[in-house]
């Protein structure tokens, strides 16, 4: 079986797997990275949202063969030594209810703020529309994104 090497949360990893194995299974089952959740397996719910080369993507539909030599970031690698401003805003706004979808929500929010540090409600709704929250915490999600955007602008930095 071939080995696929990529950078996961800043560390080089190697996984032996079939090229068509969904990355989500390699992350969770072989590498012990459980932040990206299995929700639908077809890329529509957003529970597994992570970043590939800094862009939001769905590891449940991304074959591991397609990430060789790339940078993959999951919720575990987002904050570095501390909390990322988006994670802190999630806490401050008390966003999570059941929490299942929140890693994917946070990763989608970070991807939005990398491109737009002053998003309107419509921008947020559009960027987050593919991430489903069964508990319906969308109002708090929007508030947390605005809080994080404000904090990032105040700090003079992009996420």
TrEMBL record:
GO terms for molecular function: 2 iron, 2 sulfur cluster binding; metal ion binding; oxidoreductase activity. Pfam families: Fer2, Fer2_2. Keywords: 2Fe-2S, Iron, Iron-sulfur, Metal-binding, Oxidoreductase. The keyword Oxidoreductase applies. InterPro entries: 2Fe-2S-bd (IPR002888), 2Fe-2S-bd_dom_sf (IPR036884), 2Fe-2S_ferredoxin-like_sf (IPR036010), 2Fe-2S_ferredoxin-type (IPR001041), 2Fe2S_fd_BS (IPR006058), Beta-grasp_dom_sf (IPR012675), Diverse_Oxidoreductases (IPR051452). Residues 2-78 form the 2Fe-2S ferredoxin-type domain. The keyword Iron-sulfur applies. PANTHER family: BLR6218 PROTEIN (PTHR44379:SF2), OXIDOREDUCTASE WITH IRON-SULFUR SUBUNIT (PTHR44379). This is (2Fe-2S)-binding protein. The lineage of its organism: Bacteria, Pseudomonadati, Myxococcota, Myxococcia, Myxococcales.
